[in-house]
Amino acid sequence: MNAARSLAALRSPNFALLWSAQVISGFGDRITVVALAYVTWQITHSALSTAVAVVMASLPYAIFGFFGGAIADAVGHRRAMIASDLIRALAIGAIPLTLGFQAPLGVAYALVLVAALCSTVFNPARLAIVPELVPAEQLGTSNSLVYASDRTVEIVGVLAAGALVAVLGEGAFYVDAATFALSGILLRMIDQHSRASRRLSWGGVLSDAADGARVLRDHTVLRANTIFSLLAQLSLPVMNGLIPVLVFREYGLGAEEFAATEAAIAAGAVIAGVIYPIVSRGIRKGRLIVGGFATYGVVVVLIAASSGLPLTLALLVLAGFANVLFFVSNVTLSQEVTPPALRARVFGARTALLHLTWLPMILISGGLAEDVPVQPLLAAAGALTFAVAVVGAFFRSIRDVE
Fold first, then answer.
1. For the segment 329-357, what is each residue's pLDDT rounded down to a tens digit?
2. Is position 372 within any domain?
C-alpha cells in the first residue's frame, strides 16, 4: 500500500513522462563520469588527470549554479530541459569523434563541461516544474519518488556504465548521448501550456540570478531554512569524501566493499522514498527536516564508532533513510513557498550555495585525514550536524514550518 501511494503520481501522464525522462538522463550522467574517467586513464595513466575527470561534471554547479536556474525561469522549464538534453546529446556524442581524430584530451573535457553546464539548467528546471504537473496534495509524494529513483539510478547506472565502458570503450559515449536524446523526446511529449519565454541576455540572466539569491535572503522561511540546512549538511561532504578512506584504509577492504556502502545508502533512500507519504502524514515539514538532520548526525557518529563493515552498512541504510527525510521535505517546502516564476532560480541559488560549502569541506576533511584516523573526523562532522539540528529545533521559523 505504501508503494502504491508513492507511485500514485505516475498516474499523471505528464509527471510520468517527466519521471521517465529524468531517470533516463540520470543514467546518462553516470555513463559520462565512468566513460570519461576510463578514457582519461587509458590515455594518460595519470591519477591526477583521472581525478579531475571525475569531478569535472560537478564543478559547474558551484560556479554556474546561480545562473542555471535563472536561465530555466527565463526560457521556461520544459523548454530549458529539452534544450539542455539536445545540447548534451550533441556534446557527448561528439567526444568519440574528437578522440578518433586524435584531438587533445582537453577537447573531451571541454565537451563534458558543456554538458555539465546544461545540467545546471536542467536540474533546477526539473525541480521547478514538478508543482506544475501534479496536484498540490501529491507534491511531497512526487518529490520522494523522484529522489528515490535518483538514488536507484545512481547505483544501477554506475554498474551499467561500467559494463558499457568495458564492452564499448569510448563508444559508450554514443549510448550516453542517446539517453539525453531520448529524455528530450519524452519531455517534448509533455502536454503543458508553456508561458512565453523572455529574450536571454547577460544582464537579464545576472538580474534573474540575483533575484533568486534575493528571495533566499528576504523570505523569512526560506532564509531560515537555507542557513539551517547549509550548516546541518556540512557532514554530508565529509561522509562522501571519507567513507572510501574508511573502507580502504581503516577497514583494509576493497572496491566491492566500497560499492556495498554506496548501495546501502541508496537502499535506505529508496525505502524512505517509498514510505515517505506515510511517514510525513500530519507532521510539519520543519519537524521532518530537523528530525532528519538530527537522525543523520547521530548515525554518522555511530558509524565513527563502528567496529567493522557489517554494522557500518546497516548504519548507512539509516543514513540514506534520514537523508530523504530532510532532502524531500526541503525540496517540497521550497516549491510551496517560492513564487512559480522564481522557482528554478531559487533552486539554482540553493544548489550553488550547497556546492560552494561542500567543496572546502571535502578538501579540509581530506587533508586532515592524511594525518589522523577517519573516525574522529566523522564523529566531529556528525556531532556538528546533530548540534545544528538541536539548535534549529528552538527556532519556530525552522521547526514549525508546515
1. 998 888 888 888 788 888 888 888 887 88
2. yes
pLDDT digits (tens, 9 = 90+) for 24-37: 888 887 777 777 77
Residues 128 and 221 in one domain: no
Distance CA 180, CA 148 (A): 20
- With 0-12 / 13-18 / 19 or more C-beta atoms within 10 angstroms meaning exposed / middle / buried, residue 244 is middle
Backbone angles phi, psi at 200, to 5 degrees: -80, 140
Taking the alpha carbons at both ends of the chain, their separation in whole angstroms is 25
State the Cα–Cα distance between residues 154 and 30, nearest whole angstrom: 7
Where residue 249 sits, what CATH number does that domain have? 1.20.1250.20
Q: Looking at residue 1, what is its pLDDT?
A: 42
- The whole-angstrom distance between residue 241's C-alpha and the CA centroid of its chain comes to 15
For 173, residues 6+ apart whose C-beta sits below 8 A from its C-beta are 31, 32, 35, 92, 93, 95, 96
Per the document, the length of the chain is 402
Cell of 173: 559515449
Q: Which amino acid is at 135?
A: P
| Residues near 284 by beta carbon (within 8 Å), at least 6 away in sequence | 399, 400, 401, 402
**C-alpha cell belonging to residue 48:** 591526477
Q: Quick check: 369 and 250 in contact, CB under 8 A? A: no
Per the structure, the complete domain to which residue 46 belongs is given by 1-190
Distance CA 71, CA 380 (A): 39
CA dihedral over 318, 333, 240, 91, signed as positive or negative: positive
Whether residues 217 and 178 fall in one domain: no
Which residue, among 321, 297, 344, has the nearest Cα to 130 in the 3D structure? 344
